From TrEMBL:
Protein name per UniProt: Ribonucleoside-diphosphate reductase subunit beta
Database matches in Gene3D superfamilies: Ribonucleotide Reductase, subunit A
Phylogenetic lineage: Bacteria, Bacillati, Actinomycetota, Actinomycetes, Kitasatosporales
Binding site for Fe cation 1: 77, 108, 111
Organism: Actinacidiphila guanduensis
An example molecular function term from Gene Ontology annotations: ribonucleoside-diphosphate reductase activity, thioredoxin disulfide as acceptor
Function: Provides the precursors necessary for DNA synthesis. Catalyzes the biosynthesis of deoxyribonucleotides from the corresponding ribonucleotides.
Domain of life: Bacteria
Cofactor note: Binds 2 iron ions per subunit.
The keyword Iron appears for this protein: yes
Length: 341
């Protein structure tokens, strides 16, 4: 059934292309845009020279893990950027939100450049680099993650206007997959491998760049969840038992896909990193995403990685300590320390 609205009762997902920033309907989105501007960094500030020596010291199993990890990085943010342009910018009808999405697209481009630089540094052989860029087709564990994304996100791509409740639910599933599963689970799983190496005194260049990507991705996820909160407030009828079941199923599938990736990366297990510990971590993170979205947790697992517990606070400390030499834009105002790892 079509959703009907009036000029005085506009909602965030109402079709159209609102252009007027005054009066501002969603000032919190504008503040998120301003906060993102303060968080500017460039790939040229990341020093990867020491990583080359570290790579030579890794065991064959660890080198396999790193190769798979950078292959995922090479394609993951491109999926995110495409969805930003083709779906989110198209349907979130708020000029304040579109300001933030424009900034997020820039940040995704920086991430892609960072991962390209990683590939050029870590995989000097052109054939190895070509194989990494072809990971979605050639590496089954990465192909499964990509297929999961397309399965949950593509159903809204052909929708020009969110006229019906069914269309809006499809959009919400796209947005939740985008935020909770790709940025909030797949990338957080990848970050855990990076910080595992860092906890052993290895690959500090990779960890430095990942610190800044981590901060960006946390802000992206928080913005998307704010959009979900806004839609829930404006159209609570969309958040019925069916949607809750679909979101729970989605998170379960995401954990399974990421576990297949973990088996590929970890093999028979590495000291302090194996499939069992990664399973607990992913289940813990999935529960956090479900709770944040207003749904019941399903796993009840605890975080097995102490180096991830402190990551959010450590990154913010580094952000302020390194600002004079590492950042282009001054940081002002307040910063939340409440985001989950």
């Amino acid at each position: 059934m079509p959703v009907t609205t009036t000029e005085t009762a506009r909602n965030l997902l109402d079709p159209g292309f609102e252009l007027t920033l005054r009066p501002m309907r969603y000032p919190d989105f504008y503040e998120r845009y301003r906060d993102a501007i303060k968080n500017t960094w460039t790939v040229e500030e990341v020093d990867l020279h020491s990583d080359v020596a570290d790579l030579a010291r890794l065991s064959p199993a660890e080198q396999h893990l790193i190769g798979r990890l950078v292959a995922f990085f090479a394609t993951g943010d491109s999926i995110v950027a495409n969805n930003l342009v083709l779906t989110l910018y198209k349907h979130i009808n708020s000029p304040e939100a579109r300001l933030y999405l424009s900034r997020q697209l820039f940040e995704e481009a920086v991430h892609v450049q960072f991962y390209l630089t990683l590939l050029d540094t870590y995989l000097p052989d052109p054939e190895d680099r070509a194989a990494a860029f072809d990971a979605v087709e050639s590496i089954p564990s990465i192909r499964e993650k990509a297929q999961f994304c397309f399965r949950w996100m593509d159903s809204v791509e052909s929708v020009d206007r969110l006229e019906s409740s069914a269309d809006r639910r499809r959009f919400l599933l796209n947005l939740i997959c985008f935020a909770a599963c790709i940025e909030g689970l797949f990338f957080y799983g990848a970050f855990a491998y990076v910080y595992w190496f860092r906890s052993r005194g290895l690959l500090h260049g990779l960890a430095t760049g990942t610190n800044w990507v981590f901060r960006d991705e946390t802000m992206h996820m928080s913005f998307a969840f704010d959009v979900v909160d806004t839609v829930r407030k404006e159209e609570p009828e969309l958040f019925d038992a069916e949607l809750g079941g679909q979101v729970t199923e989605m998170l379960r599938e995401a954990v399974d896909a990421e576990l297949q990736f973990a088996r590929d990366l970890c093999g028979d297990g590495l000291p302090g990193m194996n499939t069992d510990s990664m399973r607990e971590y992913l289940q813990c993170v999935a529960d956090q995403r479900l709770v944040r979205l207003g749904f019941a947790p399903v796993y009840g697992s605890a975080n097995p990685f102490p180096f991830m517990e402190l990551q959010g606070v450590q990154e913010l400390t580094n952000f302020f300590e390194r600002r004079p030499s590492a950042y282009q834009v001054a940081v002002e105002g307040s910063v939340s320390l409440t985001e989950d790892f």
